[in-house]
Amino acid sequence: MTPAEQSRHALDLCRRAPVVPVLVIEDLAHARPLAEALVAGGLPALEVTLRTPVALEAIRIMAEVEGGIVGAGTLLTPADVAAAKAAGARFGVSPGATDRLLDACADQGLALLPGAATATEVMVLLERGYTMQKFFPAESVGGAPALKAIGGPLPQVSFCPTGGISLKNARDYLALPTVVCVGGSWVAPRAMMEAGDWAGITTLAAEAAALR
Ligand code: 3PG
């Protein structure tokens, strides 16, 4: 899968809703009801971060939820790419990008949304053919004004900013012409998951889905 094909795939995915939930799943029992709650609220594309022991199994379970498109986040190595593919991930997300990771996604046919935080990083990815990128960590590196400035000379690159984004500031990013969607964990708070408040999560998802 070429980087251009990966970017087209990522763009299609990011166009489905204004927010891609970034999910940290600690309890496997949460996987199915969480996915159902988010999809019911209007957020179909879900990123499960590979940061917990149950993440891959959670992807397997969530991939069966109707209407959901489940991907793997926090991809760092070729082994992560292989594991994510085997678990049924339809896309991958990484906080940054390395040659080994990009090669693995191309070789193994996983559409990657690679992370970049500076103009140089964006340009290196663009040189390889990635026209859809994650801007990370968005708030820490200057927020919407920084992304607006980067987008000035690089209007051919589209972004999913992630990191420190919530209902409060999401619109600042979504107003930029280069921003297709934003990523964020605010739609799946740990406390609500632990309380089994799936209706509450659907309400958060619906608010997020209405952002644009
Ligand atoms: C992450 O990888 O943790 C994402 O950037 C989510 O960031 P957030 O928790 O600030 O939304």
Describe the structure.
This protein has 212 residues and is α/β, with parallel strands linked by helices. The chain has one domain: TIM Barrel. It is 43% helix and 15% strand. The chain is built from 10 helices and 9 strands. Helix 7 links the parallel strand 7 and strand 8. Helix 2 crosses helix 3, helix 2 runs parallel beside helix 10 and helix 4 packs parallel to helix 5. The longest helix is centred in the N-terminal third of the chain and has 12 residues. Bound molecules: 3-phosphoglyceric acid. The site of 3-phosphoglyceric acid has 9 residues, from loops.
Architecture blueprint of SSEs:
Blueprint: H1 3-14, E1 19-23, H2 31-40, E2 45-49, H3 55-62, E3 69-73, H4 78-87, E4 92-93, H5 99-108, E5 112-113, E6 115-116, H6 119-128, E7 132-135, H7 143-151, E8 158-161, H8 170-174, E9 182-184, H9 190-194, H10 198-209
Parallel strand pairs: 1-2, 1-9, 2-3, 4-5, 6-7, 7-8
Helix pairs in contact: 2-3, 2-10, 4-5
The structure holds 3-phosphoglyceric acid (3PG).
